[in-house]
Specification:
This protein is of the alpha+beta class. The protein has 29 helices and 13 strands. It is elongated, with a radius of gyration of 36 Å.
Length: about 725
């Protein structure tokens, strides 16, 4: 039997919006605002509320926490999440509720719901301990969530559902009415939501079958039996104690006096909890009547309410984003930033295991980025940035949300179906991540067809959140690039110092070697010590050769060692220029013009080595230019040298040029035109890297400026044998 909610009902629900009594929220917010709040204080409040507990359970059973295995104990759930996440969930829930309407009749039912849930939780746990059930806290959690479906309906369809509640005097009549109106009972709706959390336990089944006839649960799992019995003692509606006592005897052989004592203890515990939270609850208290406006006044009131709710939704979204941005601000590096985004998606929208595809400029494609706990196969997936190839690339190129369940459904490509399989859901919701001046990638949310419709109401919040996530992601990428640049500069500086040390060490070694030669001449070849002198001389020469190799060894370490692959020269040059625009170009007042061959295909070479060459040449030019100077960087395809095809890259400046003695030793680290502290080491590294690429580098200079020419072998992917 299919007990999934009908799509028509789901389109009216926001299942992540669950209400908590204002008294509990007030206590919770006060605790969160206390800098000395501890874990136990928050936990004691959360344990008393079904809505907060359900949010905790949802997050803790997400893929991000899979390494903890099955988590069915509420205390352990809180330990797994940690204090920071608990506070975030608490604040998020408070903000959501603050901007929700609370009509008097709705709040009265919310009070009754809280009372019923807490009473059932205490009863289930007491029964579990009485029959020695292995997991009493699991029974407590099942009791706390036994009317989760009612809370969903009460939050989303308040007036309509309250009217239904008032017409139904017993669970069977209510279930029949719910199925007629909604196509599903509140027990089935609550169990469905619990199943969405993918918890490896029988809590969902216990909630689903709580109202089944007793004879139908005789052989069911003990947790199902426990909740079935605990729900019989719900005194919000008149109930027959005799039925409850017979059920206790049938299922567990418990006598009436034992159950009476247990119920009395439970009532005392609930009353104590309510008193501590300043919640006045009387099961016999009358429910305020539903509002009864009619005619024109009702129409005006509805319009005002719509406008007020829309404004409240906007303010709520701003407050929610402000709360979640704290984890994004604290993230360091690309992986931490993506994990923070993933974490906040789970808290805000109830979706765990978000996947990410980031742009690879060399491949002109979106490539998967595997995070801890995810399938490593994601790293091997790449989606070309071309229209019509994938819903993932389509979302980024069109800069809009795309979903496999949209109205314009069409056959999905294999790559889309592979990604769906990795999410473990029925479809994908693709959210583009757009930076300040360029697209960065896409955020992939796995969604079920039955729950997709709720995202239409959340699309505004999702788009705003995606912009904030993209801003922090772009910041992380820039910081990573800057760190790599600093690291390269440090390595170059280290190599320069090594060359200076080698030069200084070679001078005394040369003098020692000369004196050994003189001493050997004076002693003559027949002297007994001549052989010893020869050995000393040879060892000194060997030390000299070792020292001469040291700078080259450091240089090899500083040169990136990446593998060859297709490199888009245009994108590479533009990326390097962008790197300098906000740093050296801005501080030196330099203007850079690009003259690039648009028809140039990608060539197979070492991208990072070629990038290092460009960085060194541009830095050298900028530091030699006066303020306000100009650079021109060009690239041409199919330059023929001795019958061989090359790609030409030029870096030209309009500086004063270089003297003849400098140009003669331009690629030797001895002299520089950049002033004190420089030795032209960057050009030496550039020459060596170009040699390793199989190309050549040359320089010409004059009064109108200096031009460096790089020739790199033109080998396309096809010629290299790559697909």
């Amino acid at each position: 039997m299919n007990t999934n909610p009908p799509e028509k009902l789901l389109s009216r629900l926001e299942v992540e919006k669950l209400s908590t009594l204002p008294q509990i929220l007030l206590k919770l917010m006060q605790a969160c605002n206390n800098p000395e709040v501890n874990f136990d204080q928050l936990a004691s409040l959360i344990r008393k509320d079904a809505a907060l507990s359900s949010k905790i359970m949802n997050v803790a059973n997400s893929p991000a926490y899979l390494q903890w295995g099955k988590v069915d104990n509420l205390n352990r759930l809180l330990v797994v999440l940690g204090l920071s996440t608990i506070k975030t969930i608490a604040i998020t829930s408070s903000v959501m509720q603050f901007f929700s309407q609370f009509a008097p009749h709705r709040e009265a039912y919310l009070k009754r719901f809280w009372y019923s849930s807490l009473r059932c939780a205490y009863t289930a746990r007491a029964l579990a301990r009485l029959i020695s059930y292995e997991f009493p806290e699991e029974a407590y959690l099942a009791g706390l969530l036994h009317k989760l479906g009612q809370l969903i309906l009460l939050d989303n369809l308040a007036d309509e559902y309250v009217a239904l509640l008032e017409k139904s005097d017993d669970p069977l009549a209510l279930a029949e009415a719910e199925r007629e109106v909604y196509g599903i009972t509140h027990a089935e709706l609550g169990a469905w939501l619990i199943d969405q959390w993918q918890a490896d336990d029988f809590i969902g089944d216990a909630v689903r079958f709580q109202d089944e006839p007793t004879e139908m649960v005789l052989d069911a799992h003990p947790l199902v039996q426990l909740l079935h019995l605990a729900s019989k003692f719900d005194n919000l509606k008149p109930y027959d104690p005799e039925v409850a006592y017979r059920t206790a005897d049938t299922l567990f052989g418990l006598a009436q006096p034992v159950i009476e004592d247990l119920v009395k203890e439970v009532d005392e515990e609930v009353e104590k909890a309510a008193k501590a939270l300043n919640i006045a609850i009387d099961p016999s208290e009358a429910i305020p009547p539903l509002p009864g406006e009619t005619g024109e006044d009702a129409t005006k009131a509805i319009q005002v309410d719509k406008e007020r709710l829309e404004l409240a939704r906007m303010v709520r979204n701003m407050a929610l984003l402000d709360g979640t941005s704290q984890t994004l601000r604290q993230a360091k590096g690309l992986e931490e930033t993506l994990l923070a985004v993933q974490h906040n998606v789970n808290i805000l929208f109830g979706i765990g295991g978000t996947l990410f595809f980031l742009i690879d400029e060399e491949k002109n494609a979106l490539c998967g980025e595997t995070l801890p706990g995810q399938n490593p196969q994601l790293d091997r997936l790449c989606v070309p940035l071309e229209r019509g190839r994938s819903i993932i690339s389509e979302a980024l190129l069109e800069r809009r949300l795309e979903c496999t369940f949209s109205a314009k459904e069409k056959p999905l490509s294999v790559i889309d179906r592979q990604v769906i399989r990795l999410t473990g859901k029925e479809g994908l919701l693709v959210v583009p991540l757009i930076g300040e001046d360029k697209p960065l990638g896409a955020m992939i949310l796995g969604v079920q067809r039955a729950t997709y419709t709720m995202f239409t109401a959340q699309s505004g919040l999702l788009e705003v959140f995606s912009r904030e996530a993209a801003a922090y992601l772009e910041k992380s990428i820039r910081e990573t690039e800057a760190l790599e640049e600093v690291r390269a500069e440090d390595q170059s500086e280290f190599t320069l110092r090594a060359r200076k040390v080698v030069h200084e060490a070679n001078n005394p070694l040369g003098i020692i070697n000369n004196y050994l030669h003189i001493l050997g001449s004076k002693l003559g070849d027949d002297h007994p010590a001549s052989k010893d002198l020869q050995i000393i001389k040879e060892e000194i020469e060997r030390v000299g050769r070792i020292l001469l190799r040291l700078p080259d060894e450091f240089q090899k370490q500083s040169a990136p060692q990446g593998k060859k692959g297709p490199v888009d020269i245009q994108q590479l040059i533009r990326g390097v220029v962008t790197l300098f625009e906000r740093s050296l170009f801005a501080t030196h007042g330099i203007r850079a013009d690009l003259d690039l061959d648009r028809n140039m295909p990608p060539i197979v070479t070492h991208r990072d080595r070629l990038k290092q060459v460009l960085i060194n040449l541009i830095k050298n030019a900028v530091e030699a230019l006066p303020k306000g100077g100009q650079l021109q960087i060009g690239a041409r395809d199919n330059v023929n040298v001795n019958g061989e095809p090359f790609v030409e890259i030029t870096v030209a400046d309009n500086g004063p040029g270089m003297p003849k003695d400098i140009i003669e030793n331009i690629f030797t680290p001895v002299t520089s035109t950049k002033g004190g502290g420089h030795s032209g080491l960057g050009l030496t590294i550039a020459r060596n890297l170009v040699n390793e690429l199989g190309g050549s580098i040359s320089c010409r200079t004059g009064s109108s400026g200096t031009v460096f020419q790089i020739l790199v072998p033109r080998v396309t992917s096809t010629e290299a044998g790559n697909p």
